[in-house]
Amino acid sequence: MLKALLIVSAIAGGGDYTTEMPSMKECLEARTAIMAQDNTVKTLCVPKFIADKGADMKDFFAIFMDIVDQIREKEALDTLVREENRECPDCPKSE
Fold first, then answer.
1. Helix (H) or strand (E) holding 67
2. What count of other Cβ atoms lies within 10 Å of the Cβ of residue 77?
3. Angstrom distance (rounded) from CA 54 to CA 36
4. Which terminus of the chain has a lower count of CB atoms within 10 Å, N or C?
5. What is the pLDDT of residues 43-52, one digit of tens each?
């Protein structure tokens, strides 16, 4: 079942009204009933995809933190390589 949003815009009343409808069929029926009452009102039914926005944010931050971890690992590796390549002032120099 696909949920829908019913958007009603009244030009004279100034403002929009949006409500979630249980299905596209019920949204279209409500739209028809509203237009029968006042044909100057603009109505629109749009599909509402059921998605957990919290889950989307968690996925985004998980990806973001993975990138941060990769950057930290690269910085740590670069530091280690620099330290290994640095000359030791107390070590005897080989000729």
1. helix 53-85
2. 10
3. 39
4. C
5. 888 887 655 5
Average pLDDT, the chain: 78
Quote the distance between the C-alpha of residue 33 and its chain's center.
34
Strand partners, 18: 7
pLDDT digits (tens, 9 = 90+) for 52-89: 556 667 777 888 888 888 988 988 888 888 887 776 66
For position 29, what pLDDT does the model report? 93
Laid out side by side, the sheet with 42-48 consists of: 16-21, 3-9, 42-48
User: Among 21, 62, 27, which Cα is nearest to 44's?
Assistant: 27
Contact 47, 4 (CB under 8 A): yes
45 within 8 A of 24, measured Cβ to Cβ:
yes
pTM: 0.46
Q: How many residues are given for the chain?
A: 95
